[in-house]
Design goal:
Number of domains: 1
Helix content: 10-25%
Shape: globular
Mean pLDDT: 96
Low-confidence stretches: none
Strand order of the largest sheet: 2-1-4-3
Number of strands: 4
Strand content: over 45%
Radius of gyration: 14 Å
Largest sheet: 4 strands, antiparallel
Number of helices: 1
Order of helices and strands: EEHEE
Structural class: mainly beta
Length: about 90
C-alpha cells in the first residue's frame, strides 16, 4: 500500500576521482526536474532498463517500489521521471 510518492528524476553525473584520475558515470535521482539528464531517443531505453534492473537494491524499509515514466522534452529529447512509492 502506497502512503505517498516522491517524484524524482534520473540524473547522470560524470565523476573524476582526483587521486586516481579514474572516470565513471553515476546514476542518481534528484527531486528537481531541471536537473534531469536529457537522453537521445536511441539511448533512453538503455538507461531506463539499466535503472529498472537496479531498483531491487533500492527497495526496502518504507520504499515499496518505483515506477518509471519517459517524458519527451520540447527539444525532442527524453527525461526519465521516477516515482518512488513509500508506504
Amino acid at each position: 500500500m502506497t502512503v505517498f510518492a516522491n517524484e524524482l528524476y534520473l540524473t547522470v553525473l560524470p565523476m573524476i576521482h582526483m587521486d586516481t584520475g579514474r572516470t565513471e558515470q553515476v546514476l542518481t535521482l534528484t527531486p528537481d526536474r531541471s536537473s534531469a539528464s536529457e537522453f537521445f531517443p536511441d539511448e533512453i531505453d538503455t538507461f531506463e532498463s539499466f535503472f529498472e534492473q537496479r531498483t531491487r537494491y533500492l527497495i526496502g524499509g518504507h520504499v515499496t517500489g518505483y515506477t518509471l515514466t519517459k517524458e519527451q522534452t520540447a527539444r525532442g529529447l527524453f527525461i526519465l521521471r521516477v516515482t518512488q512509492h513509500v508506504g
